[in-house]
Amino acid sequence: MLQLRIIVPVDRSAAVQELLAVDPAVAHVIVLPGAARTPAGDVVLCDVVREGADEVLEALRNLGVHHSGGVVGDGVDVTLSAAADRAARAAPGLGTDAVVWDEIAQKTGEETRLSVTYLLLITLATVIAGIAVLLDQPILIIGAMVVGPEFGPLAALCVALLRWRRSVIRRSLLALGVGFLTAVAVTVLSTWTLTAVDLLDRSMLLDERPMTDFIWRPDALSWVVGFLAGVAGMLSVTSNRSGSLVGVLISVTTVPAAANVAVALGYGVFDEALGSLVQLLINLSAIVAAGVLTLLVQRIWWGRVSAFRAPAWIRRGRAAPAPRNDADPAGRPHSVPDRTGGGWT
Predict the structure, then answer these.
(1) What's the rounded Cα separation, in Å, for the pair 69 and 63?
(2) Where are the alpha helices (H) located in 219-253, listed in sequence order?
(3) How far apart are CA 77 and CA 227, in angstroms?
(4) Contact (Cβ atoms closer than 8 angstroms) between residue 2 and residue 53
(5) Are residues 125 and 265 in the same domain?
(6) Quick one: average pLDDT of 126-144?
(7) For residues 129 and 256, what is the distance between their CA atoms, to the nearest angstrom?
């Protein structure tokens, strides 16, 4: 469930209140007249089940609330409410399957910023993976995979490609390109430094490394694993399951492949550097292809579920009909979806 805080100008407040009152996915509507100062207007609070949140946000956008006021959403972890239970029953589908596009765009868009923290994390992960490659230590490889932040820009790129947000596409590609180039450069320098103090040497790269040599020897399964990881990663983003995302990060060899490129370049083993680069490109392309396809399927499928629920006036952004005040003594919702005609009875 999402909690929405809506700031709306007084002249549109009635329309927003009516919209929320007749939508069965909404519960706990609170109106604070004139409470907002910047921007000025009424404050409307409500809770929305995730399966109906996308339609409510779209209807608010159609009313122009985001231009003249504002909408802020936040997750609700604990809810003890019969009204919330009725809202969940009234909205088809399950909250874990629901796709809230504004939430996804906001979440992934923040990952495209080329911040110092992002550069430090991807660099540290690549340096750790470079040492792990030379030591042939899969445990260190797994640790580097978890530290690496590259899935954020990849997820943002998938969302931006599907919705064709060119500015986000550019930012995502910039974050990935600059991030990996910086990480590879620093890893080359760190490899030379550790070699100079006799902690590493070139023979470690040339020796048999049965636990990690798959990193620079890509095959057809490399693309399959990357594709499956991309599907799982995008599902974890859209369903708000961060725990699943950790498993995804462990399953793909983006950071380890970049690290192997760095150490191979550092020691002048160019055939291995080329193989690692191919592995990196295979994984990146597979993740993006899988992510876009997953989002496309989710949009088509959930769009049909949403069309089954949303009345025509919500989809078209027209003024809401007046809510009925004839709730029965059992406390059932005022407005009940008419599944046969697409309206409300």
Answers:
(1) 11
(2) 220-238, 242-251
(3) 32
(4) yes
(5) yes
(6) 92
(7) 5
Q: What is the pLDDT of residues 283-303, one digit of tens each?
A: 999 999 999 999 999 888 776
Q: Is 321 contained in some domain? A: no
Q: What is the pLDDT of residue 322?
A: 45
The answer to the question of residue 278 being in a domain is yes
| pLDDT band per the 50, 70, 90 thresholds, residue 336 | very low
Domain encompassing residue 263: 103-303
pLDDT at 341 over 50: no
Look at residue 248 in the predicted model and tell me its pLDDT. Answer: 56
Asked if residue 282 is part of any domain, the answer here is: yes
Give percent of the chain with pLDDT exceeding 70.
82
CA distance 161 to 169: 7
Contact predicate 233/291, CB 8 Å: yes
260/262 Cα distance (integer angstroms): 5
What is the spatial distance between Cα 197 and Cα 200, in angstroms, rounded to a whole number?
A: 8
- What DSSP string runs through 54-105? HHHHHHHHHTTHHHHSEEEEEE------HHHHHHHHHS-S-TTT---HHHHH
pLDDT surpassing 70 at residue 193: yes
- The tally of domains found in the chain comes to 2
| Domain co-membership, 16 together with 159 | no
Same domain, 243 and 283: yes
Which residues, 6+ apart, have CB-to-CB distance to 161 below 8 Å?
A: 169, 288, 292
